[in-house]
């Protein structure tokens, strides 16, 4: 296949996946879509595939295992996280399933766009594919303004490997990127792994493990990358993160100072709230109406009609909730004290 879209998902994000697929079909056309399974919790995803046209599930177990092994070896070489992530059950990589996005480099599409499931496509993706004519890796975000969520910013190793100039312009968010099949050869991967195991793993950031590794892979390999947020002029460029509070929702679109967004990334919002609102809970979050429109695009009659007063998803606990928590803490303390007294 020539062009396609990969989405990393499982049943936990099923409501978000429905909204994303609907938004792609509504705004980007009939481009093929392939779901990368985050883990084996995909029964609901498999059921959804029966209702969609030209949406498949990535089931190349050998490819998945290859990239998971690659990622595990990297994190096992990390000077501090190797010990922190070792449990009685063994070494457990933080959010290992997130690294499965790397399978896109060996999947069915010659050119592809990868999207996290907590995303909505709101305009044509053709400019992204057009940019792949001259570049091997394309992003469109403002992550370059915040190094701390990509690399271990205080690591002495970081600026030994990458210059300050590169760190100011080349880092990116791994929630949306475009690239090509076969971008990394096995020889390149072996070279990268060797460098990491020899000490460069110290610059990786464990709280965004896949994002840190992907940035390292692209930058260390000196791949011809392009960030449209730095390339496009201000009259075309928009934000794309839900953390931007100035966006405006109207006419089933989201605007940044009058300019329509290409995509909206609900980054940082817990997946549980999307399932809650889809099931009828009146939980509010930024640009909720846009999510609900695409979640129930083909079944508007099923969209919940909220009967109770709304509550922000990040609202602080009510006073009664705080008092009950405090009471439970006191009772637990007294029970423990009584048990110790009996033991004496």
- Counting helices, strands and paired strands, the structural category is alpha/beta
* Neighbour order of strands in the largest sheet: 3-2-1-6-9
**In angstroms, what is the radius of gyration?**
22 Å
Number of domains: 2
CATH superfamily name of the largest domain? Spore Coat Polysaccharide Biosynthesis Protein SpsA, Chain A
Q: Which descriptor suits the 3D outline?
A: globular
- The separation of the N and C termini measures 73 Å
Q: Mean pLDDT, as a whole number?
A: 93
- In helices, the fraction of residues equals 25-40%
Largest sheet: 5 strands, mixed
The fold-level CATH name of the largest domain is Spore Coat Polysaccharide Biosynthesis Protein SpsA, Chain A
Name the poorly predicted regions: none
Number of helices: 13
| CATH C-level category of the largest domain | Alpha Beta
SSE order: EHEHEHHEEEEHEHHEHHEHEEEEHEHEH
What CATH architecture of the largest domain would you give? Alpha-Beta Complex
């Amino acid at each position: 296949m020539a062009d396609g879209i990969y989405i990393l998902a499982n049943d936990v994000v099923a409501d978000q996946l429905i909204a994303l697929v609907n938004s792609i079909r509504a705004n980007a056309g009939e481009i093929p879509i392939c779901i990368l399974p985050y883990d084996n919790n995909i029964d609901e995803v498999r059921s959804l595939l029966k209702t969609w046209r030209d949406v498949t599930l990535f089931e190349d177990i050998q490819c998945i295992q290859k990239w998971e092994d690659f990622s595990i070896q990297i994190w096992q070489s990390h000077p501090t996280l190797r010990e922190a992530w070792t449990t009685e059950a063994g070494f457990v990589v933080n959010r290992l399933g997130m690294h499965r996005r790397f399978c896109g480099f060996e999947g069915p599409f010659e050119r592809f766009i990868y999207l996290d499931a907590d995303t909505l496509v709101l305009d044509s993706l053709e400019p992204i594919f057009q940019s792949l004519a001259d570049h091997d890796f394309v992003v469109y975000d403002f992550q370059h303004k915040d190094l701390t969520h990509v690399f271990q910013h205080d690591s002495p190793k970081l600026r030994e490997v990458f210059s300050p100039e590169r760190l100011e312009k080349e880092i990116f968010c791994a929630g949306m990127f475009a690239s090509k099949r076969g971008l990394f050869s096995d020889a390149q991967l072996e070279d990268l792994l060797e460098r990491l195991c020899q000490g460069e793993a110290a610059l990786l950031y464990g709280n965004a493990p896949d994002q840190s590794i992907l940035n390292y892979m692209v930058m260390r390999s000196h791949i011809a990358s392009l960030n449209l947020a730095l390339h496009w002029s201000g009259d075309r460029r928009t934000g794309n993160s839900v953390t931007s509070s100035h966006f405006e929702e109207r006419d089933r679109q989201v605007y940044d100072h009058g300019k329509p967004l290409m995509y909206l990334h609900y980054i940082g919002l817990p997946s549980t709230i999307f399932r809650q609102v889809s099931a009828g809970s009146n939980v509010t979050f930024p640009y909720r109406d846009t999510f609900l429109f695409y979640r129930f695009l083909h079944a508007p009659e099923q969209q919940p009609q909220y009967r109770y007063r709304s509550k922000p998803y990040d609202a602080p606990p009510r006073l009664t909730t705080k008092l009950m928590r405090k009471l439970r803490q006191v009772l637990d303390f007294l029970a423990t004290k009584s048990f110790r007294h009996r033991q004496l």
